[in-house]
Amino acid sequence: MSDYLKKAISFISGKARLIPSQRQITLVTIASIGLFHAMLLCLFAYFKVDLMMYVNIISVMIYLVSFVIVKKGGSVLACTRLCYAEVLTHVLLACIAVNFECGFQFYLMVLSTHSFYSAYVFRKEKKVHPFCYVLASVVLFVIIWLWTSVFDPLYRFEQPWAVDFFYILNFFTAVTACILFMSTFVLIIINMESLLTEKNEKLEELSVKDPLTGLVNRRSVEERHRLATLNMEHYAVIISDIDDFKMVNDTYGHDVGDLVLKAVADVFQESVREKDMVCRWGGEEILVFLPKCDAAMATVVANRVLNNVRLIHEHPVYGEIPPITMTFGVADSFESKSFREVVKKADARLYEGKSGGKNCVIAKPGYSGSVM
Question: What is the residue-wise DSSP string for 311-353?
């Protein structure tokens, strides 16, 4: 029982993780109201209110038919409208039969609450107008109030406590129904907001990351560079290119080519510091932005990556990958204050390495970056 209570509290507070479908909510609602009418049937039979006893027999049949229709995939909207009409009729007849003091008019408040919930749920159909439903409830309330002010009820309870009993029962049932409808509404909104936030986070991630390799894009590197500039940090840049990548695609196919790019990206991520930023610069080119680093340190990193790339084809995870090599160009911010110029120098050294035989690291003069 404690688990059910916890789930109920979680649902009402909008913290439930799973949202039932609209069809499931409708089935539970129809079943609950049908059972409530079955209980009213027994009560009216006990208090000898024959009119309402027969009315509740019809009501139970309406909810039973509606339940079957929805269960078999029928129109939820049509059954919702049928149940709405049944509640209006039941409220009117109940107030005429046993008077206003029994509290059956409270269910008009429930219908008003449910009308806004239905307008949201059936917003695509655009056939539920809350104002019309609320207006119908208000008009019916006025009619009932005028009728009971002029005419006596058709039935008088023999038990003096019966009126208070029905008033309390109807009040708490109506309040419970309003709470459940609003809780469901709030829960749907909360979960939709959570889903929207999750999708926005994924879109944000896609906007800054390459979908194939998972590496960040140029915009992320440029933003990181601006931060380094604001903090007056020196930095180094490594630009690399997979040697003869076109031949890999032509010989082994683009699927293997994509696998090569993913494997290379993994090697880069594992070979650099956590604060370094690895970016797919374009095609098979990969750029590494290394904050608080100079050309000497960057050259060491580039050689480490080069050695690890040479071993990719030996790794069991990448068994289909042919032997590959890469060429690297290294530059740092001591050579130029402009990020574009630093990248340009690294790029020029990359092509110098390509022209000199590939499979090497080329840095500014005085640093170790020879073929290995």
Answer: TGGGSGGGTTPPP--EEEEEEETTS-S-HHHHHHHHHHHHHHH
Model confidence pLDDT, tens digit, residues 255-307: 888 888 999 999 999 999 989 999 988 888 999 999 999 999 999 999 999 99
CA distance 69 to 65: 6
Answering whether pTM is above 0.90, one says no
Q: Assess whether 285 carries a catalytic annotation.
A: no
Yes or no: say if 261 and 249 are a contact pair by the CB < 8 Å rule.
no
Residue 222 one-letter amino acid: E
Q: What are 29's strand-pairing partners?
A: none
Tokens (6 digits) for 245: 């990548």
Residues paired with 330 in a beta bridge: 238
Q: Which member of 204, 284, 314, 352 is catalytic?
A: 284
Q: 19 Cβ partners below 8 Å, 6+ apart?
A: 187, 188, 191
Instruction: Give the residue extent of every domain in the chain.
Output: 2-205, 218-362
Decide if domain 218-362 falls under CATH 3.30.70.270.
yes
The residue type at 279: C
Q: Read off the pLDDT of residues 82-118 as tens digits, 9 standing for 90 and up.
A: 999 999 999 999 999 998 899 999 999 888 888 877 7
